[in-house]
Design goal:
Blueprint: E1 10-11, H1 14-23, E2 31-35, H2 41-46, E3 52-57, H3 60-70, E4 76-80, H4 88-92, E5 104-108, H5 114-122, E6 123-124, E7 127-128, E8 135-141, H6 142-149, H7 159-165, E9 168-176, E10 181-182, E11 189-196, H8 206-216, H9 224-227, H10 234-243, H11 257-271
Parallel strand pairs: 2-3, 2-5, 3-4, 5-8
Antiparallel strand pairs: 1-10, 6-7, 8-11, 9-11
Helix pairs in contact: 8-11
The structure holds S-adenosyl-L-homocysteine (SAH).
S-adenosyl-L-homocysteine binds near residues 11 and 58.
């Protein structure tokens, strides 16, 4: 039995399982965080490869079974609760060192909370996670995966692409058909790997960057200068775009992350 409200779909493809585990490139010292272990199919693969695995599962019945199956392993901790509400460092502090400071995330997550999970793992443009993970391998909805990994000038390149790519490199590892799960979800899926990176040239005012990215993409059919007209006069923006060697007719989807940062810094001088 699966519970719809917890977005439960059990992965049943060994091939995909293998792709997920391989793309995490686990080393014996890695401390892994898993969100939504479900029946433990992925957890079981991770445990022998890593120093420790901490898994967070919301469903009490599943937790009971997981404890029966894996509870005697010394490098495993199962936390019962909502990942979004748990303060992991505080909960894990009294436990053995091997359960402190997870450096990798590997998970087949509940799709209904993908946005908030990404935000908790990566932080936001204006408040990046101060202790970034080395890598985050997730099985997510294909449509979201495409947006995370999209390049400028494509239809799928949106505010989410900019906001996540500002914080991490995003790679599409492989598509995953619905039939790889039981019960099959209504949507297609994909494995992605996010690698948080030091931001070489951070925006001078990341809050402002976040704001113009959201505004810029508000109406994707409009030109950027129309979407941003509450922030800056459209003729003035055209001039600035020209100075930055960007076509004044651009739409938000045509700007690279680097373009967004220079635009944000340049606008800051003008608007304030
Ligand atoms: N990893 C398993 C299950 C994936 S389904 C597999 O590959 O087969 C998603 C899992 O996330 C389910 O076990 C569900 O109960 C759990 N889940 C849903 N919401 C959650 C939340 N807020 N916090 C933690 N786990 C959650």
């Amino acid at each position: 039995m699966t519970k719809k409200r917890f977005a439960q779909h059990w992965l049943r493809s060994d091939k995909i399982l293998d792709r997920i585990v391989k793309s995490a490139e686990l080393l014996p010292d890695d401390r892994v965080l898993e969100i939504g272990p479900g029946t433990g199919i992925l957890t079981r693969q991770l445990l022998p490869l890593a120093r420790s695995v901490v898994s967070v599962e919301i469903d009490r019945d599943l937790c009971r079974n997981l404890v029966k199956k894996l509870g005697n392993l010394e490098n495993f901790v199962l936390l019962e609760g909502d990942f979004l509400n748990l303060d992991l460092p505080t909960i894990l502090a009294p436990m053995s060192d091997i359960f402190h400071r997870q450096n990798k995330v590997v998970a087949n997550i509940p799709y209904n909370i993908t946005g908030p999970i990404l935000e908790k793992l990566l932080g936001m443009i204006a408040s990046p996670n101060p202790q970034p993970y080395e890598s985050i391998v997730l099985l997510i909805q294909k449509e979201v995966a495409d947006r995370l990994c999209a390049q400028p000038d494509s239809k799928t390149f949106g505010a989410l692409s900019v906001r996540v790519q500002y914080l991490a490199n995003c790679e599409l590892i492989c598509p995953v058909p619905a039939k790889a799960f039981y019960p099959p979800p209504k949507v297609e899926s994909a494995v992605v790997r996010l690698t948080p990176r030091a931001i070489e040239n951070p925006a001078k005012d990341p809050k402002f960057l976040d704001r113009i990215v959201r505004q810029g993409f508000a109406n994707k059919r409009k030109m950027l200068r129309n979407n941003l007209k509450d922030t800056i006069d459209s003729d003035r923006l055209s001039e600035i775009l020209e100075q930055l060697e960007i076509d004044p007719q651009v739409r938000a989807e045509n700007l690279s992350v680097a373009n967004w940062i220079s635009l944000s810094d340049r606008l800051l001088e003008t608007v304030q």
